[in-house]
């Protein structure tokens, strides 16, 4: 495995005394799409900001393709394109001008052929002379990506690229990201949508309260996320789960008036049909039932508990 980014023992305590990151260790592989998945406030933007040199770490180090982000800031930063969470654009500039200007900020010589390629790759070429203010939301987002790619970075950070974006636009964004990966760019995106991580990522890192809880290949993690709960409301209370039902690992709740069964939506069978039969055989009557998907919050709780 070759890492393109190495984060070692990184912590961040804000001036307020709040510890936003707690000893983060993370390796990003060259050429992968890595999704940093976590709820709001988990520390995703803070981590990205430090890697991109916008915020200072309190402890620890980051290298980008071997360049230390402190000692060798310019070389490290030149490798990176960043599409921030908050979109700022110069509304009355043309697409061409704003993207070219971004390249200039990195002290790179003009390269119209590269700008043209970026705009074509992002399906913005026919809008190159349009003022940004006239573009649709999806196009504006693509302009932000074009700006981030203007200086030919090998790594692209996308901070919540589809937050608040409708389903169509989200799919369009995913296609753009895949095409970028195919062109050799390493991509790190943050998201609080499980589906987005599932759709896009080669590997997923889960972050919660400033700690990386796990980093896994997508397939392994999605299995953990595929759990659903079936809650059975009972007609009368029971003191304990009958031994005949032990295999189902039911959990008693509601003072014995309900039980919960966990099953895997991705499994070949859920076991619900046989459970209902065995409940009847045990003389347990059900007044109602409902199912719920594990929420991200639940998953974090169970992962934190397990770790
Ligand atoms: N400049 C700051 N000063 C103090 N606290 C901050 C600052 N920026 C972010 N935080 C806090 O750090 C935590 C992580 O924030 P952030 O990295 O933006 O999370 P995420 O991007 O995962 O939503 C949050 O609790 C946030 O309130
Ligand atoms: Mg954020």
Short description:
Helix content is 33%, strand content 29%.
How would you portray this structure in words?
- Helix content is 33%, strand content 29%.
- Strand 12 and strand 13 form a beta hairpin.
- The chain has 2 domains: 3-224, Rossmann fold, CATH 3.40.50; 226-306, 2-Layer Sandwich (Alpha-Beta Plaits), CATH 3.30.70.
- The longest helix is centred in the middle third of the chain and has 16 residues, at 167-182.
- The protein is of the alpha/beta class and 307 residues long.
- The strands form 3 sheets. Strands 6-7-8-3-9-10 form a 6-stranded mixed beta sheet, with helices on both faces. Strands 2-1-4-5 form a 4-stranded antiparallel beta sheet.
- The structure holds adenosine-5'-diphosphate and magnesium ion.
CATH topology name of the largest domain, in short, is Rossmann fold
Helical segment count: 10
Low-confidence stretches: none
- Helix fraction bin: 25-40%
Number of strands: 14
Roughly how many Å apart are the termini? 25 Å
Order of helices and strands: EEEHEEHEHHHEHEHEEHEEEHEH
Can you identify the CATH class of the largest domain? Alpha Beta
How does CATH name the architecture of the largest domain? 3-Layer(aba) Sandwich
Radius of gyration: 24 Å
The distinct ligands, each listed once, are: adenosine-5'-diphosphate, magnesium ion
Strand composition percent: 25-35%
Largest sheet: 6 strands, mixed
Strand order of the largest sheet: 6-7-8-3-9-10
Structural class: alpha/beta
- Total number of domains: 2
Overall geometry comes to: elongated
Rounded mean pLDDT score: 90
CATH superfamily of the largest domain: P-loop containing nucleotide triphosphate hydrolases
């Amino acid at each position: 495995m070759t890492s393109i980014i190495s984060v070692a023992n990184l912590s961040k305590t804000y001036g307020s005394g709040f510890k936003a990151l707690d000893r983060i260790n993370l390796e990003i592989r060259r050429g992968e799409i890595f999704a940093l998945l976590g709820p709001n406030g988990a520390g995703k933007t803070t981590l990205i900001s430090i890697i991109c040199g916008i915020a200072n770490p309190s402890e620890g180090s980051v290298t980008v393709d071997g360049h230390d982000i402190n000692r060798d800031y310019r070389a490290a930063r030149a490798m990176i394109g960043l599409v921030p969470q908050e979109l700022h654009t110069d509304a009355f500039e043309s697409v061409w001008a704003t993207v070219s200007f971004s390249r200039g900020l990195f002290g790179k010589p003009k390269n119209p052929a590269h700008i043209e390629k970026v705009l074509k790759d992002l399906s913005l070429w026919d809008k190159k002379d349009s003022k940004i203010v006239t573009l649709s939301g999806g196009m504006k987002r693509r302009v932000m990506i074009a700006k981030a790619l203007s200086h030919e970075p090998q790594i692209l950070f996308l901070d919540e690229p589809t937050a608040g974006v409708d389903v169509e636009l989200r799919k369009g964004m995913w296609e753009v990201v895949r095409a970028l990966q195919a062109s050799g760019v390493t991509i790190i995106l943050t998201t609080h949508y499980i589906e987005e991580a599932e759709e896009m990522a080669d590997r997923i890192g889960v972050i919660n309260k400033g700690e990386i809880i796990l980093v896994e290949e997508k397939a392994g993690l999605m299995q953990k996320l595929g759990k659903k709960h079936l809650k059975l409301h009972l007609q009368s209370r029971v003191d304990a789960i009958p031994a005949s039902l032990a295999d189902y690992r039911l959990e008693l709740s509601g003072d014995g008036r309900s039980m919960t069964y966990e099953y895997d939506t991705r499994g070949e069978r859920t076991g619900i049909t046989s459970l209902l039969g065995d409940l009847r055989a045990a003389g347990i009557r059900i007044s109602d039932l409902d199912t719920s998907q594990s929420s991200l919050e639940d998953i974090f709780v169970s992962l934190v508990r397990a770790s």
